[in-house]
Amino acid sequence: MTGVTAERWALQIDANRPIAMRPDGVTILFDELAAMEPGAAECLKARGLVYVTEFTEGARKFAGHIIAVSWGQAEQIAQTRALGEEVTGLFRADPGTRPG
């Protein structure tokens, strides 16, 4: 992961979408499920591939999702985004929901 630093950026958060804009011009979708069809998202959750993240900007806390094969990979993705995200859990599908 070349070029990844632990530097914390001052962010602008889009008011309508889960997008953070860094001052270096990089725009990051911090909820990887946001653009997916609900059935596809449920399928990934049922397979244990969706991790929940949190980060704080100013006085507000934001939550997101990362699609990854392991907790370690989710942490690497969070670090690469450089939003100050912390992986907080594995998102599981509702047992009563049948993926599309």
Give an account of the 3D structure.
This protein has helices spanning 38-46, 71-81, and strands spanning 12-13, 19-21, 27-29, 50-57, 60-67, 86-91. 20% of the residues lie in helices and 30% in strands. A hairpin with a 5-residue loop joins strand 1 and strand 2 (19-21). The chain is an alpha+beta fold and 100 residues long. It has a domain at 31-91. The strands form 2 sheets. The chain has a 3-stranded antiparallel sheet, with no helix packed on it.
State the gist of this model.
With 100 residues, the chain is an alpha+beta fold. It has helices at residues 38-46, 71-81, and strands at 12-13, 19-21, 27-29, 50-57, 60-67, 86-91. The strands form two sheets. Strands 1-2-3 form a three-stranded antiparallel sheet, with no helix packed on it.
Strand order of the largest sheet: 1-2-3
Structural class: alpha+beta
Q: Specify the helix fraction band.
A: 10-25%
The main β sheet shows up as: 3 strands, antiparallel
Which geometry do the CA atoms define? globular
- The low-pLDDT segments are 1-6
The share of residues in extended strands comes to: 25-35%
Mean of all residue-level pLDDT scores: 85
Determine Rg (CA atoms, Å).
Answer: 14 Å
Number of strands: 6
Number of helices: 2
Would you list the SSEs in sequence order as H and E?
EEEHEEHE
Give the end-to-end Cα distance, rounded to a whole number of Å: 35 Å
